[in-house]
Amino acid sequence: xxxxxxxxxxxxxxxxxxxxxxxxxxxxxxxxxxxxxxxxxxxxxxxxxxxxxxxxxxxxxxxxxxxxxxxxxxxxxxxxxxxxxxxxxxxxxxxxxxxxxxxxxxxxxxxxxxxxxxxxxxxxxxxxxxxxxxxxxxxxxxxxxxxxxxxxxxxxxxxxxxxxxxxxxxxxxxxxxxxxxxxxxxxxxxxxxxxxxxxxxxxxxxxxxxxxxxxxxxxxxxxxxxxxxxxxxxxxxxxxxxxxxxxxxxxxxxxxxxxxxxxxxxxxxxxxxxxxxxxxxxxxxxxxxxxxxxxxxxxxxxxxxxxxxxxxxxxxxxxxxxxxxxxxxxxxxxxxxxxxxxxxxxxxxxxxxxxxxxxxxxxxxxxxxxxxxxxxxxxxxxxxxxxxxxxxxxxxxxxxxxxxxxxxxxxxxxxxxxxx
Length: 420
Prior knowledge:
Layout: H1 3-9, E1 28-31, E2 34-38, E3 43-44, H2 51-55, E4 68-69, E5 78-83, E6 86-92, E7 101-106, E8 113-114, E9 125-129, E10 132-136, E11 145-149, E12 152-155, E13 157-158, E14 166-169, E15 174-177, E16 185-192, E17 197-203, E18 213-217, E19 222-226, E20 231-234, E21 241-242, E22 262-264, E23 269-272, E24 278-281, E25 287-290, H3 299-302, E26 308-311, E27 316-320, E28 329-333, E29 340-341, E30 356-364, E31 367-374, E32 382-385, H4 387-390, H5 397-408, E33 410-411, E34 416-418
Parallel strand pairs: 13-17
Antiparallel strand pairs: 1-2, 2-34, 3-33, 4-32, 5-6, 6-7, 7-8, 9-10, 10-11, 11-12, 14-15, 15-16, 16-17, 18-19, 19-20, 20-21, 22-23, 23-24, 24-25, 26-27, 27-28, 28-29, 30-31, 31-32
């Protein structure tokens, strides 16, 4: 008897569990040596469901993390940093309207104090250098860069000759670039060792192309200057060497410096390409393209660079927005090569006005923090610490939530339950 038949068949000891499966020909999902079956929706919990927890040891012990409310902001990207004992939250609009951004700080993720970012009309990117958090945006007198230290934001000083929107940091050196500017020449790059005093740099060497993004790669010990089809690497942020890339590499300029599309561990760097595939390197010299496993999502979602890419301290996490009627989905990998698919994240039922929308994925103070919103295009309102839930259960996120709900009253979400 197959794993699927054992699950669906029930039996006298378990009670007939076939009503949990959406139809007699319920879909079975097989990938990477794992198997899932699809469960149904709106089923009132009763005693005969209890054996589900015995079938899947440990799955009844965790639920989705409780949400932390975050200050109302705008419908653009969101990010969180941690300096000293303070979390710093950034969120901005996807459109350039005066002061359409939001920042706040907190010691515990639950109680927030708003900190004005006046002067930035569109938050673009954030980074941390030393004990200073940086934010970039449009139309500021200090070239679009502000620094946060303590409880507020300040303009930076020094070599600011343009409006710098792309931003990356090694931890001890920050580099900012003009989106749409050239990798070579003056007034397109600036660097800072402390986040407050900047030096204008003249880009030289490597390929000459329009800058779409910046990323610090620990394995390359270099900043990556990213164009729509080319990459330069640079240890100091401005003296560059061209990288040799495989055929088919293409990135979409997202207007935010590709910050949400890049992630690094100490030994691997991943860059999310326009078609949803990943560009991977372990040294900044040799690059390979990685295909992600198929998901139960629309092709327009899977084959795109929508969503987010992050490193959670032990694994890479790829978060995809599920679309208008589907919850987001997650992929996990320790090396960027072999990926495991999770079930859909479903802490909220889908609202009538639109989808549950991920707005940002950040690693701060060892926590993988996910900012999310509900509706067609609202600002993020909830912040989740995903790290505790995902650890040791990379492909069971949705299953955990579904079985937990079955204990309380109902199975009210479609989820894929792993059986093998």
